[in-house]
Write a structure and sequence with these properties.
Blueprint: H1 10-27, E1 43-47, E2 63-67, E3 70-79, H2 92-109, E4 117-125, H3 129-142, E5 150-156, E6 166-175
Parallel strand pairs: 4-5
Antiparallel strand pairs: 1-2, 3-6, 4-6
Helix pairs in contact: 2-3
């Protein structure tokens, strides 16, 4: 256990600080060269345990896992705003479609598609069964293979801008 009183002595502190820097840099070293014969392929697995309900009718998986050489891509919340003007329709379906299109646009800039998405979080203003039905229908249009990412839907009273009805963020995995 570390005795923190030891660090209060200024002379000792000056000697210990470089040791901490060395320790931290040594711990953060990563290997950039893959091992020989190691594949650079991502294997995404979708898991829906038999002891839990089947989530696919609701357009999500209980868990997803990515393995292989790659990087995680964290995508900020994409609203249902359309175009460079970020026009917000008053129609929930229109905003849901736009949010998914915006998500696809961001994915594309990293060389990814929705197939690479591991997890999404959906924020819906004044969530109800009708909005859930619409969201699910739009998910099925985008994830046509029915291999859905893990998902969390959070009902909220309001989002960042007046008129925003939905926001979707994501975590994707890009193979090297």
């Amino acid at each position: 256990m570390i005795n923190f009183k030891f660090f209060t002595d200024q002379k000792k502190h000056i000697l210990i600080f470089p040791l901490f820097i060395l320790l931290l840099t040594g711990c953060s070293k990563t290997e950039n060269n893959p091992l020989p014969n190691q594949k650079n392929m991502s294997d995404i697995q979708y898991k829906n345990p038999k002891g839990l309900f089947d989530p696919t009718p609701f357009a999500f998986s209980h868990s997803t896992t990515a393995s292989g050489n790659g990087n995680y891509v964290f995508i900020s919340g994409q609203s249902g705003g359309e175009g460079l003007e970020h026009k917000l329709s008053k129609d929930f379906r229109t905003q849901a479609k736009a949010a998914l299109q915006n998500l696809e646009t961001v994915l594309k800039t990293s060389g990814l598609t929705t197939k690479d998405v591991l997890k999404i979080t959906i924020l819906i203003v004044d969530h109800d069964k009708e909005k859930l039905r619409i969201w699910t229908e739009e998910m099925y249009k985008v994830w046509k293979n029915n291999q859905f990412p893990a998902s969390t839907l959070i009902p909220v009273p309001k989002l960042a801008l007046d008129g925003m009805l939905i926001e979707v963020d994501a975590i994707a995995f890009k193979t090297l």
